[in-house]
Design goal:
- This protein is an alpha/beta fold.
- It is 43% helix and 9% strand.
- The chain has eleven helices and five strands; from the N terminus they run E-H-E-H-E-H-E-H-E-H-H-H-H-H-H-H.
- It has helices at 37-48, 62-72, 88-95, 110-118, 132-143, 151-167, 190-196, 217-227, 232-239, 243-257, 262-269; strands spanning 28-33, 53-59, 76-79, 101-105, 124-126.
- The protein has a five-stranded parallel β-sheet, with helices on both faces.
């Protein structure tokens, strides 16, 4: 009598499940490179909290990032720009030969964004311009060759495309540009940019118009924390920056709001002054 209830290895098969269940998908493996230990810890905790992502290594500079990528062969590398020793831009050409690289940094200068893209970065996110969920989505997408850019980086990219357009009558700007500064297989769409565009400085019914203060995205975030009653230490921990950087931002905020102290700035920010 033929044995229809066993597989070729002799193991019994359940009649309702003739084939073994598929193996669970392997977690997306990430290397986080940033010279700020607080930022590294925050990113690692955020990403490792997702069931399909695991941080396999952290690095404090470009050299460590290259060594970690060589050892662990990750699926994605998150890379800061300014780091001691070997910086992110210097390490980038080597890293992109191992895995897709997403720039994740406070450096939003146009020249740096363009150079990072020229060297093969698969996306560029500036701290303070994305949410935790948007970061996770960007990490997942960059592995598939889908590029993500926060507004500061997108502006730099669009400026580059406009310059090329002025230099060539045949140049066209589309939803999916194909330009020398774009990394291979990257896809940039209006939808992608709009998903990462924060709702900052918008006026609506019942809320004060804050756009007149012309605060940057980071300054808006810090001013909101000030208005909520946070001190400098709490703001620094929440934003993953140093207290000195917080103080520098606050000085600029006070100047833009023409305020001498937190109470006066908060009153104007909330539309009470």
């Amino acid at each position: 009598m033929p044995d229809d209830e066993t597989n070729r290895n002799g193991h019994p098969l359940h009649p309702l499940h003739p084939f073994p269940p598929p193996a669970p998908a392997a977690a997306l493996r990430v290397v986080v490179a940033d010279d700020n230990p607080v930022v590294r810890a925050g990113l690692t905790a955020l990403l490792s909290g997702r069931p399909d992502i695991t941080v396999v290594a952290e690095a404090a500079d470009g050299r460590q990032a290259c060594e970690a990528a060589q050892q662990h062969r990750p699926d994605v590398v998150l890379l800061d720009v300014r780091m001691p020793g070997v910086d992110g831009l210097s390490a980038l050409p080597y890293l992109v030969g191992i895995a897709p690289v997403m720039m994740l940094t406070y450096s939003g200068e146009s020249e740096i964004v363009r150079e990072a893209l020229r060297r093969g970065a698969g996306g560029y996110l500036v701290h303070g311009e994305f949410t935790a969920d948007q970061l996770v989505t960007a990490v997942r997408d960059v592995r598939q060759g889908r590029a993500h850019f926060t507004p500061t980086a997108a502006d730099a990219l669009l400026a580059q495309l406009r310059e090329q357009g002025r230099g060539s009558a045949s140049a066209h700007v589309t939803g999916r540009p194909n330009s020398p500064v774009s990394p291979p297989d990257s896809r940039i769409s209006a939808q992608t940019l709009s998903q990462l565009q924060p709702n900052v400085g918008q006026s609506s019914s019942g809320t004060p118009d804050r756009s007149r203060f012309q605060l940057s995205t980071r300054e808006v975030e810090i001013m909101d924390h000030i208005a909520s009653g946070m001190n400098n230490q709490q703001i620094a921990a929440t934003c993953f920056i140093s207290e000195k950087t917080v103080k520098n931002h606050i000085n600029r905020i006070f100047a833009k709001l023409h305020s001498a102290n937190r109470s006066e700035a908060t009153a104007k920010w909330l539309g009470l002054g």
